[in-house]
Design brief:
It is built from 13 helices and two strands; from the N terminus they run H-E-E-H-H-H-H-H-H-H-H-H-H-H-H. By secondary structure, the chain is mainly α. Helix 3 runs antiparallel to helix 10, helix 5 packs parallel to helix 11 (231-237) and helix 7 (154-182) packs antiparallel against helix 10 (212-228). The two termini are 24 Å apart.
Length: 294
């Protein structure tokens, strides 16, 4: 079997083709990350005009700060809840659409739309739905005897941002799960059906194991999403309140650095957040990937 290879007559041309992406990565990823690491070891004035080296002082203070540890615990709860909800609903919708023959494309198009919504808009949408005075969902909860008020109740506020963040990510999970379901060989499912296996047993014994690569990929993506891409949702709905009940790590970086002008501590928090995500990713590849069946 012949393998086609691209040969560049000019040895400089491959580097020129890679140069735009390398420049963008350097300017918008590598350089800011390096600046954050540098600032985490310094104490700067609010205007960034002077800085003094303080070593690991910011990290020591953070690890002994009850507010930071509480934010870390809230982030863990938030990440687990959003990942579980978004992946579960994405899989359920993918299974439902996969059963459709004629109208599958229409439902796919409709279910993809929420992913195009900006995080701030998604947060505002659910903020209006759960508004304690004019929200439709808050009204129905009131009819059930639940007085909803995410402005005063920290648990309600956390539930609100979890629902908003999960709803925003369901479409992304749905697309990948649907693609994975459509790649499952029908011959295996038909053979299991002939052997007398019911739909539920076929799903858990055949379909779900074959979806393990997709599930593993989405698990990593969703964890990174909850850690980094949910800032707009929190800022638009609760702004970290009430009483810091929804002040997760990514929002605390902004709150302490931009609003509190504590640039050194904010930089240290961003470095710790990056290290947490890196450690979680390594753990997932080291232990979770063992259960993946390729």
């Amino acid at each position: 079997m012949d393998t086609k290879r691209t040969i560049f007559p000019n040895p400089v041309l491959p580097y020129l083709l890679l140069a735009p992406q390398l420049v963008i990565t350097l300017l918008f990823f590598i350089w800011p990350a390096g600046q954050a690491v540098k600032s985490s070891f310094e104490r700067e004035d609010p205007f960034g005009l002077s800085a003094s080296f303080v070593g690991f002082q910011h990290y020591v203070r953070l690890l002994n700060d009850p507010l930071y540890l509480d934010s870390l615990a809230r982030t863990a709860v938030f990440a687990v809840a959003v990942t579980a909800l978004s992946m579960a609903f994405g899989l359920a919708l993918a299974v439902a659409v996969n059963r459709l023959v004629r109208s599958g494309r229409v439902y796919t198009t409709l279910l993809v739309w929420p992913y195009a919504v900006a995080p701030v808009i998604a947060g505002l949408l659910w903020w209006f739905l759960f508004n304690s005075t004019t929200g439709v969902l808050a009204y129905f909860l009131g009819q059930l005897g639940i007085r909803w008020d995410h402005n005063l109740n920290g648990t309600h506020a956390m539930i609100l941002i979890i629902i908003a963040a999960a709803w925003k990510q369901v479409s992304y999970n749905f697309l990948f799960f649907l693609a994975g379901l459509q790649s499952v060989p029908h011959s295996l499912i038909e053979a299991a059906a002939i052997d007398g296996s019911g739909p539920v047993k076929r799903f858990f014994t055949i379909v779900l194991p074959l979806l393990s690569p997709t599930t593993f990929f989405l698990f990593i993506v969703n964890v990174n999403y909850t850690m980094f891409d949910t800032f707009g949702i929190v800022d638009a709905t609760t702004a970290g309140g009430p009483a810091q009940a929804t002040n997760i790590l990514v929002y605390k970086v902004y709150n302490d650095g931009y609003l509190g002008l504590n640039l050194g501590s904010s930089s240290a928090q961003s470095v710790l957040l990056m290290l947490i995500v890196v450690v979680l990713t390594v753990i997932q590849f080291r232990y979770v990937e063992r259960r993946v069946q390729y």
